[in-house]
Amino acid sequence: MNNKMNSTKFWNIFAVVTLLIALF
Fold first, then answer.
1. What separation in angstroms does the CA of 6 have from each of 18, 23, 24?
2. Residue 16 pLDDT more than 60?
3. Three state DSSP letters for the chain
């Protein structure tokens, strides 16, 4: 299992959501 890849994807989504909240 590639756990690092899954974690990176999660943090990428988290960063996008945080940006959207900050903008709106």
1. 18, 26, 27
2. yes
3. CCHHHHHHHHHHHHHHHHHHHHHC
What is the pTM (predicted TM-score) of this model?
0.51
Q: 19 to each of 3, 8, 12, 23, how far by Cα in Å? A: 25, 17, 11, 6
Given a cut of 70, whether residue 1 has pLDDT beyond it is no
Type of residue numbered 6: N
Torsion angles phi and psi, residue 23, rounded to 5: -75, -40
